[in-house]
Design a protein that fits this description.
It is built from ten helices and ten strands. Strand 9, helix 8 and strand 10 form a beta-alpha-beta unit. It has a single domain, classed as Histone deacetylase domain (Arginase, Chain A, 3-Layer(aba) Sandwich), CATH 3.40.800.20. Helices cover 38% and strands 13% of the residues. With 344 residues, the protein is of the alpha/beta class. The radius of gyration is 18 Å and the shape is globular.
Length: 344
């Protein structure tokens, strides 16, 4: 089993200083993969910048020019959360392009699965707006490139970042070719991702949002993954694209979820298993959030070990015991409105 890896030093050129989404995130991940002996065992895929035509499938020409021009002028704050530097436009092009390279390599059979360590992240970026640390929507650009190129006709996107991927949802809300499944904390930025939002027009029924209350942990995530598996089995995609945000870890102060490295590894096992059932194992993990250095690195290492078929460990352990919320009624309601049975 060959697992692909997309990484490039250009991603460090998106210089955000001491911002939570900073270059040291990738430095820590790379160091951990090297320390664990995984880095040289992965099949390294060279990213290239996304073309303007590829970006235009998702973003307006005005948005693309704005990001380019703002970076050329030295960058600065876009809003209270998002910033650019002089290297941000180039890094963002390579992030979206790296997502495409990873997905195409998996579909062609060059690698079994792939892990794309790209930044800036992308799932909040909309048609005409950078927001939530995101400039271009990497997973949406990759999905559209596969559809436009005819290499995939049906794509399942699973977003497990603690924050709802509003930009990705909007990109495919009326598109029956792409199923968007998001599990996220609610309430939390950006305030979208309600359970009754399920798509529109021909795409009605191809969006499932699972808004978890704070304090949910590994067991609740396991239950959600059962619902995700049901949806993916029914949809039968050609590939699964995963917006992999690790900011729900109990050490990550940006959310109030209580997930552990073990929970993320078990979720990766579920995704890998479902992909084996429905699309010959074709799955791509694209990095989104995750802002506690040790938790992020350990979670990515565990995910990587799952992909290469090795045992994983949780060096950080579980959170302090608490009584988690009961999400059974939430999941029952989602199964009802989407016509999915109660089985996992």
């Amino acid at each position: 089993m060959t697992v692909g890896l997309v990484y490039h030093p250009v991603y460090l050129e998106h210089d955000t200083g001491h911002h939570p989404e900073r270059a040291s995130r990738l430095v820590e991940i790379k160091a951990a993969l090297e320390r664990e002996g995984l880095w040289p065992r992965l099949h390294h895929l060279s990213p290239c910048p996304a073309t303007e035509a590829e970006l235009l499938n998702v973003h307006s020409p005005e948005h693309i020019r704005w990001v380019e021009g703002h970076a050329q002028q030295g960058g600065g704050w876009v809003d209270m959360d998002t910033m650019l530097s002089t290297g941000s436009y180039r890094a963002a092009l390579f992030a979206a392009g790296g997502a495409i390279v990873a997905a195409e390599a998996v579909l062609k059979g060059d690698v079994s699965q792939a892990l794309a360590l790209v930044r800036p992240p992308g799932h909040h970026a909309t048609h005409d707006q950078a927001m939530g640390f995101c400039l271009f929507n990497n997973v949406a650009v990759a999905a559209h490139a596969l559809l436009a190129g005819g290499t995939a006709r049906r794509i399942f996107i699973f977003d497990f970042d603690a924050h709802h991927g509003n930009g990705t949802e909007a990109a495919f809300y009326a598109d029956p070719r792409v199923f968007f499944f998001s599990v996220h904390q609610h309430p939390l930025y950006p305030g979208t991702g309600h359970a009754d939002h399920m798509g529109d027009g021909e795409g009605r029924g191809t969006t499932i949002n699972v808004p978890l209350p704070p304090e949910c942990g590994d067991e609740e995530l396991r239950q959600v993954c059962g619902l995700m598996a049901q949806a993916a089995r029914r949809f039968r995609p050609d590939i699964m694209l995963v917006s992999a945000g690790y900011d729900g870890h109990w050490l990550d102060g940006i959310s109030q979820l209580q997930l552990s490295v073990s929970g993320y590894a078990q979720m990766a096992e579920t995704i890998k298993g479902v992909a084996a059932e429905v699309c010959e194992g074709k799955a791509v993990f694209l990095l989104e959030g995750g802002y506690h250095a040790a938790a992020l690195a350990a979670s990515v290492v565990a995910t990587c070990r799952v992909l290469v078929g090795e045992e994983w460990v949780d060096p950080l352990g579980p959170p302090m015991p608490c009584i988690p919320p009961d999400i059974s009624s939430l999941l029952h309601g989602l199964r009802h409105i989407h016509g999915l049975g109660e089985g996992g």
